[in-house]
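COURSE: Structural Biology Practicum
ASSIGNMENT: Worksheet 4, Part C
STUDENT ID: 0417
INSTRUCTIONS: Below are two proteins. For each, the amino acid sequence is given first, followed by its structure token string. Answer the questions at the end about the second protein only.

PROTEIN I
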Amino acid sequence: MLITLDGFSGSGKSTLAKKLESEIPGIRVIKADDFFYQCGEKRDKRAGNFNVRRFIKEVTPQIKRGSGFFIRAYDCRNGKFYKKWIPEGNITILEGSYTSTPSLDSYRDLGFFVNCDRREREIRVKSREGDNYLNFLNRWFKDEYNFEIKFRTYKNSVIVNNYNELRDYICGEKLLKIKNLQVR
């Protein structure tokens, strides 16, 4: 099962995904940031900075198997690839901005969009990024906002405001029955 966890920078996507992974056996997390475009690569305009083509080609076949596997993660800060282990799991959460892209519609089982007040997001990003804060504010906040205005991808997602809402939905009996899954 592939679940996407989208939202604007600083909305809490990574924190929520890590918490789910640590508290619920069978969940594994893949970061969309590991699939950032390299300089000069042709981009899918419906996926922002997320290289959805590479994700589909290299990762989606592995997800269906449920076993652990390595990915070619890209570190955009130093411009290099490295091997990253993804553990076994029956639920894979793809976490990051642009993951609700229409390009993943035929692969995604369920999508969530993390809602968070802009001021709170700015405080979080400033704390996380330090001196790079203004770059995030002037570039990434603007890019993400324009992307959502253009594609309205959140309309195909369940909007959540906090961890409890997200956990209740993922672990809820209704979802488990629909998808015929067991969360151990």
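PROTEIN II
(use this one for the questions)
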Amino acid sequence: MDKTRVVRVTRTVRHPFYQKVMTKSSKFHVHDEGNQARSGDLVEIASTRPLSKLKRWRLVRVVKAAPKAAEAK
């Protein structure tokens, strides 16, 4: 899957009956033409025409890059 990234979008929702706050997430297969995004990056995506069986989104830009492994230590 060259030029493909899987982006997880998390959101908090309140249960309609129990009123408990829960975290839900969705995974989107995103087309990354320039292979810019890395694991842990905060990215902006936009919908596009179907590019494959699962890819319906494209990478607009990397908003915030994740720290590198060497810098994290």
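ANSWER KEY EXCERPT:
Q1: The longest helix spans residues 69-72.
Q2: Residues 31 and 58 are 5 Å apart (CA to CA).
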